[in-house]
Amino acid sequence: MPLSFSRALDGGVRALIDACRGDQACAAAYPALADDWETVKRRFDGGPVEAEARHPRTGRRERVRISRGVFADGLRHLLYNIVEAWGARH
Q1: Is 67 within 8 Å of 73 (Cβ atoms)?
Q2: pTM for this one?
């Protein structure tokens, strides 16, 4: 993954955390968001993480293995949409 992608993810997460801190309802719902983010990142220190997800076509729950890179790339794409939507409202 290019270094710019890593920086974009970190910047997006930091912007989301900062925005949440500044929103009373979000801060109340997620009081430890920055710590939670650090916990999630550490989970990948030992390699891919197993999780359960719903298959998009069948709806059945399945066990999947998610690598740090796949997780980071998916989250980075989601954050583009969240940050853009937040900016449009504020």
Answers
A1: no
A2: 0.72
